[in-house]
Amino acid sequence: MQQIKPEFDFLFNNLNKISYILFKPTHFGDVNQKMADFCSCQRSDLRGKPIASILNSQELKTVKKFNQEVFAEGKRKKAKIELEVESEMRMIEVDVIPHHNVNGEVDYLLCLAEDITEELKQEEKLYRATKRYRSIFKNAPLAFVVSDRETNIIDWNDKAEEIFGWKKDEVIGEKFNLIVAADSYSKITDLIVNVFENNESYNVHKNIAKDGSELYCEWNTALIKDRNDKILEIISIAQDISEKIKIQKRIKNQKEKLEYNQLRTIFFANISHELKTPLNLIFSSLQILEYKLASEDHLENKFDKYLSSIKNNGFRLLRLVNNLIDITKIGVNTFCLHKGNFDIIKLVKSIVKSTADYLETKNRKFIFQSNLESQIIACDPFNLERVILNLISNAVKFTEAGDEILLKIEKIENEIVISIKDTGIGIKKENQAIIFEEFRQVDQSFNKKREGSGIGLSLAKSIVEMHGGRIELTSEYGVYSKFSIYLPIEKIAAKNLETDNFSADSLINKVELEFSDINNI
Ligand code: ADP
């Protein structure tokens, strides 16, 4: 085996680098102590041995080829070589320096190597961490705004572009306040001061987008510092919570509305009691008065006019109170129907019977048409009566003496249709939809002659709809009005029929009540 000069060996062996000499591309010439330590063996274990003793077959091929090239080209070159030492893969970076003899031929290679395993591991770690950060930064569903310690923006991710509308290029170098609403500047300053003092880094404030629209964001801020604790960057992460805040506000409003509605219901329940008690007292006193006067022949006729005025106006008040309470209950969903299976034909006929005389006294030509004998449907008779009486009362209210009122009941497909048509003033097209809204009356000046509160139709519509039906209006202004109630033919399973409880007699007071508005016409 070729040897190196002893004085050179001294230098070589004490070199602070893993070093070896190759006289052939495939065999070690000499190795220094550092190399022996690296390979966990003695210098003599490697000296003159084939390089295959520390390389796997794949790596051997590459290294052999590389060494041959340096021998052939005579040029200094660097290579990274992977080798297994004590079952652990290590990586060295070798600086291969060819030595030329006096004839200019390469007679050996001086190889100076460095163990870069740890460095590579760190590099890999760093690479992965950077990659991870870039991937989070790019794809996060949160806006990332990176700024320097003077709050100049230095980076900005896709989500930030989406939320604030500015492209990255447009904001680099701009102050962070570019995206802060003026009235939130102080909040941002507080946040940054807090972060610098290592305190709370969370804040919600009003931001402003490129198009000037305002949005609320939840911000979390962190500092990136160097080894000397000097602040390098501020990372601010934002989530657009405008929608959340909107929903919270809506819930709050709804809660307040609900509370207000509850208050309103309680108020109306109280007021209804307060209003009905004196009315009941008036009615009972009236009854006694009527009774007393009936026994005094000479007095009876003298007071008739006054008594009926008190009674009628009492009924008007009672109807108004009832309607107001019910419309309020409907508004807050506390109005309930008491439905059962009833014969709707019998019910309508009872109403017709109880109102016929009355309408005659008003000189209206009242016609009733029905080719149905009986039809049981699920309904609340008390409330349906109110609806029908209200429609008949309106028909009287908006007609003149001699006009015609036609009440028809028929079966169309799977529905019962009750229609009330009059040849009165009719309703203009533009008013046909609004009359079903609460408190709406058409042409106030005209209506002064006709009493009413504008609640009747809205209540009627709600009651019919609560029956699963609908109410429709057809009219030609100045010619006629026709209100049609469509009720589904269906029954409630468990209920018994109670139709017999409803007779014409029991309706008399209700007719007076519902017609109280028109008694003065
Ligand atoms: P009101 O208690 O004022 O009668 P309604 O809700 O019953 O309240 O009716 C609302 C308005 O609809 C009435 O003021 C009137 O302008 C119009 N209206 C209702 N029925 C008729 C009808 N048969 N003919 C013409 N207009 C009517």
TrEMBL record:
GO terms for biological process: regulation of DNA-templated transcription. GO terms for molecular function: ATP binding; histidine phosphotransfer kinase activity; phosphorelay sensor kinase activity. It catalyses: ATP + protein L-histidine = ADP + protein N-phospho-L-histidine. The keyword Cell wall biogenesis/degradation does not apply. Residues 270-491 form the Histidine kinase domain. GO terms for cellular component: plasma membrane. SUPFAM superfamilies: ATPase domain of HSP90 chaperone/DNA topoisomerase II/histidine kinase (SSF55874), Homodimeric domain of signal transducing histidine kinase (SSF47384), PYP-like sensor domain (PAS domain) (SSF55785). CDD domains: HATPase_EvgS-ArcB-TorS-like, HisKA, PAS. Residues 129-199 form the PAS domain. Pfam families: HATPase_c, HisKA, PAS, PAS_4. InterPro entries: HATPase_C_sf, HATPase_dom, His_kinase_dom, HisK_dim/P_dom, HisK_dim/P_sf, PAC, PAS, PAS-assoc_C. Keywords: ATP-binding, Kinase, Nucleotide-binding, Phosphoprotein, Transferase, Two-component regulatory system. This is histidine kinase. Gene3D superfamilies: 1.10.287.130, Histidine kinase-like ATPase, C-terminal domain, PAS domain. Residues 75-128, 198-253 form the PAC domain. It comes from Halanaerobium praevalens (strain ATCC 33744 / DSM 2228 / GSL). SMART domains: HATPase_c (SM00387), HisKA (SM00388), PAC (SM00086), PAS (SM00091). Its EC number is 2.7.13.3.
